Amino acid sequence: SISVVGISMTVAHTITQSNGTTVTIGSSGYTQSAGTFTGGDSTSHMDINDGSFTLSGGAFTEPGGNMNIERSFTKSGTPTFTHNSGTVIFDDSNGADDTTIDCGDITFNKVTLSKDSYATDLIISAGCIVPLGAGPTSSVTSDATFTNNGTITIASGTWTVQGQNANDQSANMTNNGTITHSGTGWLSTGG
């Protein structure tokens, strides 16, 4: 495993993550405009603490385990993004940081929304498809704004949206986009 302040790929270099490792990235985040990053298998992870993920060129294969992002996810241009059957988790482990998910035509395998620190806004941009999987639980503090301008999909089960903790039943959500649900349950707020 490795810990760095940031990763910036601006030339056609290659980074290959070994299976079973975690790449921990600090506040400078992950930026790629060229080159190739290949994540490892389901035992491999990436954790971007207090930073963002920006992909504008090259090829990025997500680690097959979890990829935690504390701030924003931005895709622009025509890079290649491969989900590698991993899960992208938008969290706030280092504090209350706003998140915008601007993923364009990227296909995610699964996304978890866990933004439950005080006043942590979460925005899903138009054109972005966010698959939450089966029976998902999303956390967004009641002091924040959760705005969906894209498409959220729920594979099956009940989607539970809760506030800062299981007892906070006042998560604040605005849906300007589409929510597609393939199961029998529906939205629940609270714990």
Number of helices: 0
Quaternary organisation of the protein chains: single chain
Query: Any idea what the radius of gyration is?
Result: 16 Å
Note the beta-strand portion.
Answer: over 45%
Distance between the termini: 35 Å
Overall geometry: globular
Describe the 3D structure.
This protein is mainly β. 0% of the residues lie in helices and 46% in strands.
Short description:
The protein has 191 residues and is mostly beta strands. The protein has strands spanning 2-9, 14-16, 22-32, 36-38, 45-48, 53-55, 59-61, 66-69, 73-75, 80-82, 87-90, 99-102, 110-115, 122-124, 129-131, 137-140, 146-148, 151-154, 160-162, 173-175, 178-181, 188-189.
Keywords:
single chain; 191 residues; mainly beta; globular
Summarize the helices and strands and which ones pair or pack.
Layout: E1 2-9, E2 14-16, E3 22-32, E4 36-38, E5 45-48, E6 53-55, E7 59-61, E8 66-69, E9 73-75, E10 80-82, E11 87-90, E12 99-102, E13 110-115, E14 122-124, E15 129-131, E16 137-140, E17 146-148, E18 151-154, E19 160-162, E20 173-175, E21 178-181, E22 188-189
Parallel strand pairs: 1-3, 2-4, 3-5, 3-6, 4-7, 5-8, 6-9, 7-10, 8-11, 9-12, 11-13, 12-14, 13-16, 14-17, 15-18, 16-19, 17-20, 18-21, 19-22
